[in-house]
Give the backbone structure.
Amino acid sequence: MKTIDGSELTFRPLQAWSEYLQAEELQRVVWQMPDWRDVVPANLLITAHKNGGILLGAFDADQRMIGFAFSFLGVARDHAPKILKQCSHMLAVLPEYQGQKIGERLKFAQRDASLFQGIALMTWTYDPLLSLNASLNLTRLGAMARHYIVSAYGDMTDGLNAGLPSDRFEVEWWLNAPRVQACAHAAPARKTWDEALCSGAQPIFDVTLDARNLPRIVQIDEPNADILLLEIPAQLGALKSVDAALALDWRMQVRNAFLKLFNQGYVAFDFVFDARQAKSRAAYLLTRQPIDLGTS
């Protein structure tokens, strides 16, 4: 990892054609894309950006782009009356600069740009089995998820996604929600695994470690509490590289659980790690209690 002084970074809209080309190449590197059809091309990036989309880059002191966030205008069809939203399609940071909150800063800069447009909702998708993405989206940004999309992008071939069905959460980021405003102004207090259990969260999966120290679901319980704890693999990539069949089993079990729970009115609103085990366990927190979206 290359450590970078956060004060050296500039977050700003892309300007020159060469910067759109940098964003195109950055996609190939971050997602390990062997198929050029997976890349959002520079000509589409610039067109969306000039017509209401948001395209922000993170630039180092030499004005080299090390990350970007891209969204385009959309319509929230499930909202009555229908409202405009920003559809955030990509958030990327070069691998050597990850883990330094650059993605988080890009998202909050994207939030500021959306609010400047008068748009208070942003949505995007991510793989619900990716623990670090879940922690960023739900805990650090204050977003929530209540829609599960089965095989959202068909069979994917890039290095990060190949081998599993492309199931996704659709994240809702209500930009004026009290929880989101609190996250924007200060690092949120992180709930721990034990705190979640002590507050009455009900575990849905009974998970044990097999002889290879890999997590395996041995029992699924019926939900009977307002707050649920639903465990996922803490390190999907490592699990998939050792036992692809077990990773697929996790995909299917998690898919079935979330489809059922979302249909019952539960919402994924937070994410926890088990601090006692050096982040070797990870889980979603779900609630069926109302969440203030900041829309009134």
Notes: The CA atoms of residues 151 and 166 lie 4 Å apart. Residues 193-287 form one domain. The two ends are 43 Å apart (CA to CA). DSSP finds eight helices and 13 strands in the chain.
